[in-house]
Write a structure and sequence with these properties.
By secondary structure, the chain is mainly alpha-helical. It is built from 6 helices and no strands.
């Protein structure tokens, strides 16, 4: 039996949300403070347990300064995430990559 997944209208690729947040060197708390979205929702968004409403996505796009299309990308950021995290941690600690 073939299972068909129906994507919700408010779907985003949550992996790109985390990358966008980290690329701006924001913690979840800082993004919450800037966007007004609760940390509970943001944590669930990053784990793909919750998809943002249109107004929440608009807020995230504004605060993170990324176009909406960035979050709608189908491909997964394999390799980008772990490499980027290492670079961010080094920059935060003033170390060379």
């Amino acid at each position: 039996m073939k299972v068909t997944y129906i994507r919700p209208d408010n779907w985003i690729n949550c992996a790109w949300l985390k990358i966008a947040r980290e690329s701006r060197a924001l913690s979840i708390k800082q993004l919450c403070d800037s966007s007004g979205i609760s940390s509970y929702k943001l944590k669930r968004m990053e784990k793909a347990f919750y998809f943002p409403s249109k107004s929440e996505l608009d807020l995230l796009c504004t605060v993170l300064n990324y176009p909406k299309e960035f979050f709608l990308r189908e491909e997964n950021p394999d390799g980008v995430h772990s490499k980027y995290n290492k670079e961010l941690k080094c920059r935060a600690n003033n170390k060379k990559v």
